[in-house]
Specification:
The chain is mainly beta. The chain contains 3 helices and 28 strands. It has a single domain, classed as 3 Solenoid (Pectate Lyase C-like), CATH 2.160.20.10. The chain has helices spanning 2-18, 68-75, 323-330; strands spanning 47-48, 51-52, 61-65, 81-85, 88-90, 97-99, 104-108, 114-116, 119-122, 127-132, 135-137, 155-158, 161-166, 169-171, 176-181, 185-190, 193-204, 212-216, 219-225, 229-231, 235-239, 242-246, 251-254, 258-262, 265-269, 273-275, 279-283, 286-288. It is globular.
């Protein structure tokens, strides 16, 4: 009987940490806080490429990593795993990006789990990966503000699909905080903080108009450019994000990108929105102390909605005026996640 109870408990823990879609309310946010989901939402939740959403390591073993060697070993295994990261892990050599194999959940245990001096890489063909509740920081090379001497990213995703990044804080990296490239698709970034950086969030480096991405409840703070820069995204849905103290430009829908921007809050942002040849539909957004700097040019908004996000997944909008307070309190790593 005890063995049966232990087995059932292990299965329940794995499902909660991995974000099993069969239990969307499991390990819920504390009373009085927003009801963020513990299963992937947005475009990471859609059925595509013979996958029904993003479940990460659900169904696999739950393991713990407190060293770089343990994290690398588990992240590269060819089996479903829920990897719980404990404490701060210093990465050597500086800038190394830990490769993640398919069917993995990497989740910080509480608010103090950190990846310091390195990042993660999700390569071509990889899929079904969840990254949650981590601070990923400090690969910046002193004096190289433009990231020209190295390519140290907090997270780079190349030609992968079904990835969910949730409640993470990326800051002070050498190149990009997030670089999602080469046709990577079915991506959701939610409840994250992207701060203290130059080239914040790049999406593109491809020619085909195919990728789909959702960014919601994410705080872009004290950054310069690419907040985000999105190139040739077939469907880009951004809602309830907070853009604060951005010096160069905010959201740029580049190339043929088709974007829906809903109930976001822009404060002290130069060039808050720009669109090239695609469409950018703005609904219910608030702009405070924003200004046009004359670059990168293009229109503020263009065209009617190319797509309806509701046709792909369910979501609930918070009021735009509530976004700054909401994200200041609840974005980024949380003590109750990963425990």
């Amino acid at each position: 009987m005890r063995r049966i109870v232990r087995c059932r408990l292990a299965i329940l823990i794995a499902a909660c940490l991995a974000g099993s879609p069969s239990a969307p309310g499991s390990a819920a946010a504390p009373s009085g806080s927003p009801s963020w989901r513990t299963a992937a939402d947005g475009f990471a939740s859609v059925r595509a490429f013979d996958r029904d959403g993003t479940t990460g390591g659900a169904g696999g073993r739950v393991v713990e990593a407190s060293t770089q060697a343990e994290l690398e070993e588990y992240a590269n295994r060819e089996e479903p795993l829920v990897i719980r990261v404990k404490g701060a892990i210093e990465i050597q050599p500086k800038g190394k990006e830990i490769r993640i194999a398919c069917d993995k959940t990497i989740v910080g245990m509480g608010a103090t789990a950190e990846i310091v001096g390195g990042g993660f890489f999700i390569g071509p063909g990889k899929h079904n990966i969840i990254l949650r509740n981590l601070t990923i920081r400090d690969t910046y090379v002193e004096g190289d503000w433009n990231g020209k001497t190295q390519d140290y990213d907090g997270l780079q995703i190349d030609a992968a699909h079904h990835v969910w990044v949730d409640h993470c804080h990326f800051l002070r990296h050498g190149d990009g905080l997030l670089d999602i490239r080469k046709g990577a698709t079915c991506i959701t970034v939610s409840w994250c903080i992207l701060s203290d950086h130059n080239k914040t969030f790049g999406f593109g480096w491809h020619d085909k108009l195919e990728p789909r991405i959702t960014i919601h409840h994410t705080w872009f703070r004290d950054t310069c450019q690419r907040n985000p820069s999105m190139e040739n995204a077939l469907n880009a849905h951004l809602y309830n994000n907070y853009f604060q103290n951005i010096s160069n430009y905010g959201v740029w829908a580049r190339g043929q990108t088709h974007m829906v921007l809903e109930n976001c809050y822009f404060e002290n942002v130069t060039n808050p929105t720009t669109v090239d040849q695609g469409t950018l539909v703005r609904k219910g957004n608030i702009f405070r102390k924003c200004r046009k700097g004359g670059w990168p040019g293009g229109a503020d908004a263009r065209g009617s909605a190319f797509f309806d996000p509701n046709a792909y997944y369910d979501y609930r909008l918070d009021a735009a005026e509530d976004v700054p307070k909401l994200l200041a309190e609840y974005a980024g790593p949380r003590e109750e996640i990963g425990r």
